[in-house]
Design goal:
Shape: globular
Strand content: 25-35%
Structural class: alpha+beta
CATH architecture: 2-Layer Sandwich
CATH class: Alpha Beta
Oligomer: single chain
Order of helices and strands: HHEEEE
Radius of gyration: 12 Å
CATH superfamily: RelE-like
Number of strands: 4
């Protein structure tokens, strides 16, 4: 089991569903309405904020999102 799935399994069902919906939006490149910011010093890397959880992802050459890390606000940037 990968670390993203493991993290999602530990969350409360309501937050887990929110994150799954946001991840699905990112995979479809539907970023309107999401709180997204580019990461400094890393071109094509972004942060999506969902409450206290952060989704770190990057865009590959085809333009689709690849999830790199999901974690709580203080832990994901380490």
């Amino acid at each position: 089991m990968d670390r993203i799935t493991k993290f999602l399994r530990k969350l409360q069902p309501k937050l887990r569903q929110q994150l799954k919906d946001v991840i699905a939006q990112l995979m479809r490149n539907e970023t309107k309405g999401l709180d997204i910011a580019p990461l400094s010093r890393k071109p094509h890397w972004y942060r999506c904020r969902v409450g206290t959880v952060r989704i770190i992802y990057f865009k590959n050459k085809q333009g689709s999102a690849v999830i790199y890390e999901i974690g709580f606000r203080g832990d994901v940037y380490k």
